[in-house]
Amino acid sequence: MAMETIETIEKNSILIADDAEINREMIKFIFDEQYSIIEAENGEQAINIIAEYSDRLCLLFLDLLMPKKSGLDVLAFMNEEDYINTIPVIMITGEATDETDEKAYEYGASDIIYKPFAPNVVMRRAKNIMELFEHRIYIEHKLEKRTRQLRESREKLERSNEFLVNALSSVVEFRSLESGEHIQRVKYFTKLFLKYIMKIYPKYDITKEQASLIVNASALHDIGKIAIPDSILLKPGKLTEEEFEEMKKHTVYGCELLEKFKQEDNEFYHYCYDICRYHHERHDGNGYPDHLKGDDIPIWAQIVSVVDVYDALVSKRVYKDPFAVEEAARMILEGECGVFSPEMLDCFRLAKQELFAVTEGEFSFADVMVK
Amino acid sequence: MTVQEFYDEVGGDYNEIMSRLRTEERIRKFAGMFTRDESYKTLVQTINDGNVEEAFRAAHTMKGMCQNMAFTRLYRSSHEITEILRGKDIEGAKQMLDVVTEDYNIVIAGIEKLLA
User: Fold this and answer.
1) A210-269, pLDDT tens digit by residue?
2) What is the ipTM of this complex?
3) Which one of A90, A144, B10, B61 is CB 3.0 to 4.6 Å from B39, fit for a cystine?
4) What pTM was estimated for this model as a whole?
5) Is it true that A2-146 and A176-369 share their CATH fold?
6) Which residues have C-beta within 8 Å of that of residue B78, sequence separation ≥ 6?
7) Residue B57's domain spans which residues?
């Protein structure tokens, strides 16, 4: 809104800051037919005028040596308050000394003219500079608008994407008659873990963008369960060894499903694939399906693995009662349930209280996940 | 007195000022402004007070005006005193002030005749 207002006010005033009336007049008579002129006889006045009329000033002629505040003080103020990018400044000076010239340019003056000056030259230079600024501001506004539009459409796309991934992943939960919150919790826990990983393990080099893709991908970790027969998936007791072998295949089934829509150059695809396939691997190589060991297991799969185990322990299942959070944490940290890397365990310790808070229902999921 | 005669009398550059200000009417107007400017008075005052910073600024302003008005002779002496004051030499400035005063009085007397 503010931008539109700026455009409607006519930027047609030139401020002339010089302590000698004669010098101000010398510039004034060049411009006063086409522009409205505001005068300042010292730096302090100039600063006050800029603050008040910034939206209508199209140019500032600035003397270097003035009482109260100097021309450089005015420039410094304009830099601090960010006027320097919207109001072009032409310095007026009596002598060319490299030192002050350098400083004036360094402070953001657009041009320097030396006394005495020829009116037509000053006019030409001033017009060039004003045009340049006007054009730049116009382009910047356009770019800003375009960037905003792009960001909005990207956010929309991301939301749709997240919606689809959530819907897809909940298909499995729906079928296995679970509450549907397991996936939301896994996503949230994954996000928590990533926060600590990024903070204390820069070696994994995970960016914010990657983290958000990984969180989304974590929702699909059990997608392969769609291919597990009801007799096994819904069995209300312990699985036989044979049944368990079949159950383990959900990791590979998930990958087969994803491979049908393979996007080799899409980062998100690879996170989904890795998480589906490796979220039951173990740090000591005794997991499944590929018996990967240590850091051969992608870090994102390691994260989903530990949060999946934690959530399974503290959830009620047909064949078991939930463990208390402290007990579940102890089992994970002491290696009684799964084997995880030292880094994962470190993060687990750091994130523990936050995991407990979710499990014990201290806040509602709707508040956490909906942005 | 014509503007040309005035510039010759005070040691200024008539052609230069005409090329910049275009009309004699405008030159007269600016000359009137020059008499109202307080820089010279401030210069004298601050040199007597020994206030070298303020004296420097007054001299500097005066020099700039002379440049703009093409008062070549007064420009030279005010330029010189500006440099002396930049070097914070108040005694040197006191001596130079006599020359500036002489040149200044010539210009002021000339303007009075011009505008009479």
Assistant:
1) 999 999 999 999 999 999 999 998 888 889 999 999 999 999 999 999 999 899 899 999
2) 0.84
3) B61
4) 0.60
5) no
6) B59, B62, B63, B66, B100, B103
7) 3-115
